[in-house]
Design brief:
alpha/beta, Rossmann fold, two-stranded antiparallel sheet, 11 strands, 29% strand
C-alpha cells in the first residue's frame, strides 16, 4: 500500500469514527483538542496526532487480522475496524474490566461487527488467536519490546509499540525474521504492564 493511499484512508477513518464518542461525558466537549484525556483507572485516550502517526506507520490493509493491545476507550479499536473493513478482524485486549465494557459499548456505536474484545490477566497479547498481520500497542514498555508480541506477529507483519518515550516500528520479513526496527522519538504513554521482554537496539 502506498503512502498516499494509507494517508487518505486514515483521514477517512478519523472522519467516520468520531473521537468524542470514546471519551467520558465530562470531556466530550474537548474532543477536538490535540491532547490526551483521562478515561479513568489511570488510563487515557491518546491525542489524535499520536494515534494518526501510529496508524500511518502500522498501515493496516483491508481484510487483515489486527491485535489492539490496551484498547481502553475503544477508539483505536474502532479506527482499526474501519480500516480493515468487514472482511478483516480486530482483536482488542484490555486488562481493566470496567474499561473493557466502556470500550466495547463505544465500539458498538460504529458497528463493531468485526471486533472482539478480551480481558487479559497475566499474559500479554492474545496468543490463542495469533498470528496477527498487524499489532498496535497503546501503552509504553520500559526499555524493551515484549517478546510475546513479536512471537504473535505473522510473517510480513508489522508491530507498532511505544517504548519509554519513543514509538518503535518493527517489521517481519516473509520468513518471519525481523526485517527492520525503526524508532520515532518524542512520545509519552501510560505504562505497559508486562514481565517478559526483549531488549531493543
Amino acid at each position: 500500500m502506498n503512502e498516499t493511499t494509507i494517508d487518505k484512508r486514515v483521514e477517512q477513518a478519523f472522519c467516520t469514527v468520531k473521537r468524542r464518542y470514546f471519551m467520558t461525558a465530562d470531556n466530550q466537549h474537548m474532543a477536538g483538542n490535540d491532547a490526551p484525556f483521562s478515561i479513568g483507572h489511570a488510563q487515557t485516550i491518546s491525542q489524535p496526532t499520536t494515534v494518526k502517526h501510529m496508524l500511518l506507520w502500522l498501515a493496516p490493509e483491508t481484510g487483515q487480522r489486527i491485535l489492539d493491545v490496551g484498547s481502553g476507550s475503544g477508539w483505536s479499536t474502532a479506527l482499526l475496524a474501519n480500516l480493515v473493513g468487514p472482511t478483516g478482524s480486530v482483536f482488542a485486549v484490555e486488562r481493566i474490566p470496567a474499561l473493557k465494557r466502556f470500550g466495547e459499548k463505544n465500539c458498538q456505536r460504529f458497528g463493531g461487527h468485526n471486533i472482539e474484545v478480551f480481558i487479559t490477566q497475566n499474559k500479554l497479547g492474545l496468543a490463542t488467536h495469533a498470528p496477527f498481520d498487524r499489532i498496535l500497542v497503546s501503552a509504553a514498555a520500559t526499555d524493551k519490546i515484549p517478546d510475546e508480541l513479536i512471537d504473535q506477529l505473522a510473517p510480513n507483519g508489522k508491530l507498532i509499540i511505544p517504548v519509554n518515550n519513543s514509538i518503535f516500528e518493527l517489521q517481519k520479513d516473509a520468513q518471519g525474521e525481523i526485517e527492520y526496527c525503526h524508532e520515532h522519538f518524542g512520545y509519552v504513554f501510560v505504562p505497559l504492564i508486562t514481565d517478559n521482554e526483549i531488549t531493543v537496539s
